[in-house]
Design brief:
123 residues, mainly beta, four-stranded antiparallel β-sheet, globular
């Protein structure tokens, strides 16, 4: 199983960025996918998750209204659209998958992880 996050970069506050998470080696339409981030010197935190079909999503309060998660199961890809970015959004963003149908904000409840992509937001 492989998950690969991409799309990070350096942007200014207020800009937008779209991250992608592409998976292989698993039945993608049967896993819930979550996005997490880890800022320098801080613990990993939950950002958003999306159900198998994409029918339900869940967001951390800190990104609600600014970020949107979506998926294209035909392409084995989940997206994280990030708008109105703030310097506090600076972090390494990683995607993870879990076989359960239920949303979960705990990183240890996810079965598969990919390498992250760095997002830097300058003020």
């Amino acid at each position: 199983v492989q998950l690969q996050a991409s799309g990070g970069g350096v942007v200014q506050a207020g800009d937008s960025l779209r991250l992608s998470c592409t998976a292989s080696g698993l039945t993608f339409s049967s896993v819930l996918v979550g996005w997490f981030r880890q800022a320098p010197g801080k613990e990993r935190e939950f950002v958003a998750s999306i159900s198998w079909s994409g029918g339900t999503t869940y967001y951390a309060d800190s990104v609600k209204g600014r970020f949107a998660v979506s998926r294209d199961n035909a392409k084995n890809t989940v997206y994280l659209q990030m708008n109105s970015l703030k310097p506090s959004d600076t972090a390494v963003y990683s995607c993870a998958a879990r076989s359960s149908r239920w949303h979960n904000t705990r990183s240890d409840e996810y079965d598969y992880w990919g390498q992250g992509t760095l997002v830097t937001v300058s003020s």
